[in-house]
Amino acid sequence: MLDKSKPYCMMVLRLGPAKGHPDFRNIVWEHGRRNFQLRAEGKLCIVCPVRDETDVAGFGIFATDLEETKRIMEDDPGVRAGIFTYDVHPCISFPGDALG
Fold it and tell me: What pTM value is reported for the model?
């Protein structure tokens, strides 16, 4: 089964130092709009906002390599504003894996 695996990148999004930014709502809205565009382009497979009281804001699974995923995240409006920080980890998935 491992020979049929496919590479992805898992991104963990965390609240950043500017989480109290005065334009927080608008920047986060633009961040979400951009996520839908990345999904339409086939670059962002899964988006999962996290709903607890930790600093983890969400995670995503990208169908891009590590360097492209980092470039995508560095251009994120929330990251640029300091509202979010992120970590990226290369990972694999197997045929048939899906949310359902």
Answer: 0.90
